[in-house]
Structures are given as structure tokens and as C-alpha cells.
Design goal:
alpha/beta, TIM Barrel, 9 strands, about 10% strand, globular, disordered C terminus
């Protein structure tokens, strides 16, 4: 009897980097490892999207699309290159208008993407419909997602198998076009039994011919058990990473999972241990100068009570280190339990995980509910869609008063379209105006430099500055509520 072939997606270069380094890994540092992964026989990679997209612009002064193009050149035309999108949030933390959502799919299709995994943190299916249409419009595979986690003790009404079945049925009834289905647990808090029952339910509902996969993290220490449960229930694919960005806050290691299925009727992507070892050795060499935060390698027994995704955890701890408040981290994680309980049970995955963390941080630093994080407040007020259960009425009242916003039941996508600040035309105008200001500033600078015979090529100088300006505007589009400065994306002068 032949073994069942299990499709392995290597998440090293997106979720692995995001979960361990906050996404901050330079492309030329890791490209040799991509070549090694290809030689190891891996042909399905997660290579962009999520916070990995914005990190290149914010922190590395790199163009994410250039990285994607070069990645495709290395692995060749036949590899399945996958990115992560947040429904109507795409790669942003805020909701996007229809023209920005369409542009996201168009640009990712242009720059080497094969498949887009598309989720909504609230499991509001309305937030998946238009983005799915755009993904398919540009010839990409659409992997639709149901997001998972475990709730803190005593919380009921969502995030059980009936809730996931209800969500999946809504996806099917909506007519959302899809090529595969992923159950995504960004915090790694779901129990193996719940995973087994969920995958069994899904297979019964959509049939054996539909590709179903599981994505989870090792954060709570049960990821391998969850993958084994998923495979036993009939899953067709799982996500793994390579050392040193595997385990801990990331996905289980490829070699660990190969060991876990020894003697079982599964073929993990046809991979060979010796070749994977060579690949991981090369990756370790590529990343030897990078600091691995200790929390990125830890398994935390309290995460199921305060679900915090691996991809958001290290990004936030880096922020806390930068601001000298890392000593408050245990208190913030503990405070997340109440924030989740009263926030409507949205899945702890970007952007909701960020909202949870920001509100928990506010509650620790300023006192419980004295300050409402804008994202969290707008979420409980309905501006990101419908939460799985109704948020606590008192918190809704506080958020409305402090943010001076009324609760809404209007469709989140329509609200975004009505906000002209989110229109593509607005961002194009910002770019044009920034380019004009830079051009004027540069001409003045060059006149001074020419007098000293130091610079004679305006065209070269202008090309460099224009590219940096585009990076700045892209960063603003991605994260408009966070002021973008020249120090974040590179100097104004080349």
C-alpha cells in the first residue's frame, strides 16, 4: 500500500522569519538558503505577505516586490510560491478600499505569486468575498481560511467545532471561489482533539477531493500532536519550517515532523533527511549573525489562556525592548485574557492579535480600560466586521466615548470605500506631492554640490531618491496610523 502524499509548505522565509525576527531578515542574507531548499527538493514555499511585506519597507529599506521577483528567479517557474493576505486588510492593519484590495492581488500576481492564503481574523465571511474575487481575477490560486484558536477558560460561544462548521458553511453558501481550504491557528492553542474533529467535519462537508491543510505554531507545545491529529483526520497538507527558525513561536521543524511520522502511512513531500540536513545547515550559516530573542524559542504553558500568535509575539517584544519596558511583558500577556474575553472572541491573528496586545499593554501601563487602543476600539464597535460573539456592552460604551465613534453594523468594505483617505487615488496624489517636494529639495542640494564639483549626475541622484520616496509611500499605505519617518525607511539623501 502506497503512502499518502502530504504537501509540505516551507514557511521558513515568511512565517519563520516573522515569528523569530519580526520579519527583519535581509534578502541577500537568506537567498543562499533558498537555493539550498530548492536543492533539497522543496517546491512549495511561503515567501511573502503578512508582516513580512511591511517589514522590508519599514525596517530593512528593501523593496518587498524586488525580493519576491528574486525569490522566483531562484526557485524557478514551477514552484508554488504562496503569500498571506488578511481579507479586506490585505497586508495592512486597517481595512482597505476595493481599489487597494484589487491592486494587492494584481501586484502580487505580477511579482511571482502562485497562491494567496486569505483569511479574516473575525471569520466574517463578508470580508473574504471581494478579496477572493480579485485573487481569482488575476489568475492566482485562492486558499480560503478558517481561523482557529482556543478560548480562555470559561469562555463559550465560538472557537469550537460547531463554530468552525458554521463558518465553513457560510463560505460555501457565499459562493466564494477557492482552490483549497486552510485551518489556521496562529497562536498554536487549539487542542489535538479539536483539530481532529474540525478536519473530519471539513472533509465530510467538502469531500475528499478538496485539498485541506492545517497551519499551526509550536507556541503552546502541541503543534506536532495537532499535525498528527490533522493527518489522521484526512488533511492533505501541513506547514513546516527549518532550523533555526522552527519550533518555539514558529512551525515545527521539517526534520522533527519527519521523525514524528516514522512508521506511519505518510510521505512528507518526498523529502529526504540528508538533503534537508544540508539545507538547514546552510540556513544556520546564513542567519548566524542574527539575534534570536529567547522568547522565540520558548514553549509557553500560559499561551492557551492568553492566545498570542508567534508572528506577533516577537514583533511586540522587540518594540518593548526598544522602549525599555520588556519587564512588563508577563503582565501584558496575562492581561490579554480579559481583553479577549470582552472583545468578542476574534481570532488572535493579525490584525486582531495586535489589537489585543495594544489594549492589554494600555491596561497594564495606564490602568484597566483607561485608554482604548484605536484598533481594539474600532473592532468592538464593528468597523472591522462582525465579531464572533457580541463584545462586552460596557467595553463597547467605553470605546464609543473615548474614540468618539458610534457602533456600526455596516459592511466593513463599504465603510472603507466611503473613506476617501483609503482610496488609491489619494495615495497616488500623496506620492506625486512627495516626489515634487523631493525633486525641489534635491535640485537645491545639487546646486550646492555642483559648485564643489562633487556631484554631476542629477539623473542618478534622482533615481535613488525616487525609489526611496516610493518606499515611504508604500509604508504609509501599509500602516497609515503609524507615522513614517525618514529614519525608518532610509535617509532622504543618497
Amino acid at each position: 500500500m502506497s503512502k499518502k502524499y502530504i504537501d509540505i509548505m516551507d514557511t521558513t522565509f515568511r512565517d519563520g522569519f516573522q515569528s523569530v525576527f519580526g520579519g527583519r531578515v535581509l534578502m541577500n542574507d537568506f537567498f543562499p538558503a533558498v537555493e539550498a531548499a530548492k536543492e533539497a527538493g522543496i517546491n512549495h514555499f511561503e515567501f511573502g505577505g503578512g508582516a513580512r511585506f511591511q517589514s522590508l519597507f519599514f525596517y530593512l529599506q528593501e523593496n518587498a516586490f524586488e525580493m519576491m521577483d528574486k525569490f522566483r528567479e531562484i526557485v524557478g517557474p514551477d514552484a508554488n510560491l504562496q503569500t498571506l493576505a488578511r481579507g479586506i486588510n490585505t497586508v495592512m492593519l486597517d481595512t482597505g478600499s476595493r481599489d487597494l484590495i484589487d491592486l494587492h492581488a494584481k501586484m502580487f500576481a505580477k511579482h511571482g505569486t502562485t497562491t494567496i492564503r486569505n483569511f479574516d481574523a473575525l471569520n466574517d465571511v463578508q470580508n473574504l468575498e471581494y478579496s477572493a474575487e480579485c485573487i481569482k481575477k488575476y489568475g492566482l490560486n485562492h486558499e480560503v481560511v478558517v481561523t482557529l484558536m482556543d478560548l480562555p477558560p470559561g469562555c463559550v460561544g465560538a472557537h469550537d467545532v460547531p463554530f468552525y462548521e458554521k463558518t465553513l458553511r457560510k463560505i460555501l453558501d457565499s459562493g466564494v471561489p477557492y482552490d483549497s481550504i486552510c485551518f489556521k491557528d496562529a497562536s498554536g492553542t487549539s487542542s489535538p482533539q479539536k483539530i481532529f474533529d474540525t478536519i473530519k467535519m471539513a472533509k465530510k462537508l467538502v469531500g475528499e477531493d478538496t485539498h485541506i491543510r492545517l497551519h499551526t505554531h509550536e507556541t503552546a507545545g502541541v503543534s506536532v500532536a495537532c499535525y498528527l491529529a490533522a493527518l489522521d483526520a484526512g488533511a492533505d497538507g501541513i506547514d513546516l519550517a527549518a532550523n533555526p527558525v522552527s519550533g518555539g513561536t514558529s512551525q515545527p521543524d521539517i526534520l522533527t515532523m519527519m521523525h514524528a511520522v516514522k512508521g506511519m502511512n505518510y510521505d512528507l513531500g518526498g523529502l529526504e533527511i540528508g538533503k534537508v540536513l544540508t539545507y538547514e545547515k546552510e540556513l544556520q550559516s546564513c542567519l548566524e549573525d542574527y539575534f534570536i530573542p529567547p522568547e522565540a524559542t520558548m514553549v509557553s504553558p500560559i499561551i492557551p489562556f492568553s492566545p498570542m500568535p508567534g508572528g506577533a509575539l516577537t514583533a511586540n517584544t522587540q518594540m518593548m525592548r526598544d522602549n525599555g519596558i520588556m519587564d512588563k511583558f508577563p503582565e501584558v500577556i496575562a492581561a490579554m485574557q480579559e481583553v479577549v474575553e470582552k472583545g468578542g472572541y476574534g481570532t488572535s491573528v493579525t490584525p486582531v492579535s495586535q489589537f489585543y496586545f495594544q489594549q492589554a499593554l494600555n491596561n497594564v501601563m495606564q490602568g484597566p480600560w483607561e485608554a482604548i487602543a484605536p484598533g481594539y476600539g474600532r473592532m468592538v464597535l464593528g468597523y472591522f466586521g462582525k465579531t464572533p460573539v457580541d463584545p462586552d456592552p460596557e467595553i463597547v460604551k467605553i470605546a464609543s466615548e473615548k474614540l468618539n465613534l458610534l457602533p456600526t453594523t455596516e459592511k466593513a468594505l463599504d465603510l472603507a470605500d466611503a473613506d476617501r483617505a483609503k482610496a488609491l487615488e489619494n495615495w497616488i496624489n500623496k506620492l506625486k506631492n512627495a516626489v515634487r517636494r523631493i525633486r525641489s529639495r534635491l535640485r537645491g542640494l545639487l546646486n550646492v554640490l555642483r559648485k564643489n564639483a562633487r556631484v554631476r549626475s542629477f539623473d542618478r541622484k534622482w533615481a535613488i531618491l525616487k525609489n526611496q520616496t516610493i518606499q515611504i509611500i508604500c509604508a504609509q499605505i501599509l500602516h497609515e496610523d503609524q507615522k513614517v519617518t525618514s529614519s525608518r525607511v532610509g535617509p532622504w539623501s543618497a
